[in-house]
Amino acid sequence: GEGGGDGMCIDARQAEALVREFAATWKGGIEGINQDVMAFFSNFRNGIEILKQVLTQLLLYHTRFLEVLKRAYPRGLPGWAKDVVQTCQILLEIRKYSRTF
Question: What pLDDT band is residue 94 in, cutting at 50, 70 and 90?
Fold first, then answer.
């Protein structure tokens, strides 16, 4: 990869592809998860609990990915990193679904 020298090495093309793919699909993905959970779990309370667990896991993986990027580019993120979805955006989207329960 083309990391920032003193950072860790990552495959820059793969990281860029991941960032762009996630940016394009994450909202629809959360909506799909919500619909699936509601369809498969007739017990409303169980469904909500499972949805919370899944979305929490998504946030954890996303946060780890951002940490890896920052370590790989200690001197500043590359231009394509402007497409990185911020954790606060994901939290706002999750809150939207929480309001409907």
Answer: confident
Residue positions counted in the chain: 101
Contacts of residue 40, defined as CB under 8 A and 6 or more positions apart, other chains included, come to 47
Count of Cβ atoms closer than 10 Å to residue 15 Cβ: 23
Cα atoms in the Cβ-side hemisphere of radius 13 Å centred on 48:
9
State what percent of residues in the chain have pLDDT above 90.
63
Angle formed by the axes of helices 44-72 and 87-99, to 10°? 170
Which residues are CB-contacts of 83 (< 8 A; sequence separation ≥ 6)? 19, 20, 23
**The token pair that represents 57 in the structure block:** 């896991």
Query: DSSP secondary-structure letter at 75?
Result: T
pTM for the structure as a whole: 0.79
